[in-house]
Design goal:
This protein has 292 residues and is α/β, with parallel strands linked by helices. It folds into 2 domains: 83 residues, Winged helix-like DNA-binding domain superfamily/Winged helix DNA-binding domain (Arc Repressor Mutant, subunit A), CATH 1.10.10.10; 204 residues, D-Maltodextrin-Binding Protein, domain 2. Helices cover 43% and strands 18% of the residues. The chain contains 14 helices and 9 strands. Strands 1, 2, 3, 4, 7, 8 and 9 form a 7-stranded mixed β-sheet that branches. Strands 5-6 form a two-stranded parallel sheet. Helix 1 packs across helix 2, helix 1 crosses helix 4 and helix 2 crosses helix 3. The longest helix has 16 residues.
Length: 292
């Protein structure tokens, strides 16, 4: 197999008509052009030029090879143009699947910084907690609070979500025995935060069920009941205050998940670093284990 660089040098020689002309255009030594030509002739088993004292006219075989190679410069330029965005200003889309609460409270407020440093990078944020988004090819990167069992995935622990019980200041003045609660429906009773909610409420009633956390938060603001929220949301809500509990609140690990092949993409690398930075900058999500 011939060296493609040799063929490229020959194509320039064929166009310029001389070793010195090719050397000037390529920015290399005259002798280097000669060595490249000889290397190509040996590899092909053909004589491509007639070695005359002052010129290098092409043989019939040389003319045929030059005709085939005449588009090499154009093709090389197109390849370089296609690669340039990856080298200078990365362009393209990366799909990220993340829990809605973490997307809203941690990622979205920091997207402007990502846009400032990589204006041609399009982040597609897909609020979801489903574990099969990656396997279906619906996301390039996933953030989850459960580590998937798929051994082909790269999983990196980057923090933890802590929870607390919250209600309005007016609600907090009610006798604890009269508290009502806000909850997910029974299909999510396996969640650690849901188990904790049922543990602390005991026999006290659930006044409102909602499948999304924002609806639960809005209901708590309307004094409907006490709600379990991630501390990154509850602690910064001016309409809610922490409520005392006897049992310690749970925490859930945060995992960034990606397939190895996708992980090699420069775009994915940038977004993964961005997501890890988002979590690292959020005090409520920092993992004490990671800080040791």
């Amino acid at each position: 197999m011939f060296d493609w660089q040799d063929l490229y040098v020959f194509s320039v020689l064929a166009r310029t008509g001389s070793l010195s002309g090719a050397a000037r255009e390529l920015g290399i030594e005259h002798a280097t052009v000669g060595r490249r030509l000889e290397s190509l002739e040996r590899a092909l088993g053909l004589r491509l030029v007639d070695k005359l004292p002052r010129s290098r006219p092409l043989t019939a075989d040389g003319q045929a090879i030059a005709a085939l190679a005449q588009n090499m410069a154009q093709i090389a330029g197109l390849v370089e143009q296609r690669a340039r965005p990856s080298l200078i200003g990365l362009a393209g889309s990366v799909r990220v699947s993340a829990p809605p609460s973490l997307s809203r409270a941690c990622i979205v407020p920091r997207i402007a910084a990502l846009r400032a440093s990589h204006p041609q990078l399009r982040l597609i944020l897909q609020p979801s907690t489903a574990l099969d988004d990656m396997g279906k090819g619906e996301a390039d990167i996933a953030i989850r609070t459960v580590r998937p069992e798929d051994g082909d995935l790269i999983c990196k622990k980057v923090g933890e979500v802590r929870f607390g019980l919250y209600g309005t200041r007016e609600f907090s003045r009610r006798p604890a025995g009269q508290w009502t609660f806000i909850s997910y429906d029974e299909s999510l009773d396996h969640l650690p935060q849901q188990i904790w909610l049922h543990q602390i409420r005991g026999e006290r009633p659930v006044a409102f069920f909602a499948s999304d956390l924002m609806s639960q938060q809005m209901a708590a603001r309307d004094h409907i009941g006490a709600v379990v929220l991630p501390t990154m949301i509850g602690d910064v809500d001016p309409q809610l205050v922490p409520l005392p509990t006897q049992a310690a609140a749970p925490a859930r690990d945060i995992w960034i998940i990606v397939y190895p092949d996708i992980r090699r993409s420069p775009l994915v690398e940038i977004v993964m670093n961005f997501l890890m930075d988002c979590i690292a900058r959020e005090p409520a999500l920092s993992s004490q284990a990671l800080l040791k």
